[in-house]
């Protein structure tokens, strides 16, 4: 079999998987699960900004899920949806064909990075559902320490930080330019306008939060101190130390809530 035939078969398999209702339905659930987690993240961020308490990261959000009636069932369903969403994004990465070669590779990288993020979140939800929770900040520090211990570790961690900042900037630009409208069937009338506003605010807030986490990676690389790389919680906690930082965190929390509502709506409106 030639390389071209192999690629064609791979695309055919990916297209079949991407078009499958068996994948689409749980993937829509993945958007809803992501929305729920972002809603809880937003609430925890507001709590941090207003009362200087709480752990505004995925661990804190998933821990809140365990406190609601039937929380463990929600976690299991969320994990399945997040894994399905990750698989769908991987099929989309295989199917990218539009644009120049550079544009295609950038699109593939974005799909794969988002797939990895959803898969990691799925494993975290699974750990909570199984009664063996992992702490996001501690895990981030361990990963950072492992990177720093490798040859050219500071450079590697710095590159990871720059990539994370770039992803955050991508989200901000996507929100400002309303490119997310390509991902959904925008309703007509007031409902459509509300969805677009939620998407704009949500993507901008999510981008700023992700960029803050990237900055934490960069600072950890410069100082060679993995303890400073604490993910979302660390980025928001650092922001809190700045003048009017508490107000900024509350605003970002409201933005994350908007992102959560948008993602829940996307569960119904997403284009597959």
Descriptors for this entry?
10 helices, globular, mainly alpha, 272 residues
SSE inventory with pairings:
Layout: H1 3-19, H2 21-51, H3 58-66, H4 71-95, H5 101-129, H6 136-149, H7 153-176, H8 189-223, H9 231-240, H10 245-269
Helix pairs in contact: 1-4, 2-3, 2-4, 2-10, 3-5, 4-5, 6-7, 6-9, 7-8, 8-9, 8-10
Structure overview:
With 272 residues, the chain is an all-alpha fold. Helices cover 81% and strands 0% of the residues. The mean pLDDT is 81.
Per the principal axes of the C-alpha atoms, what is the gross shape? globular
Structural class: mainly alpha
Percent range for β-strand residues: under 5%
Helix-strand string? HHHHHHHHHH
What is this entry, summarized?
This protein is an all-alpha fold and 272 residues long. Helix content is 81%, strand content 0%.
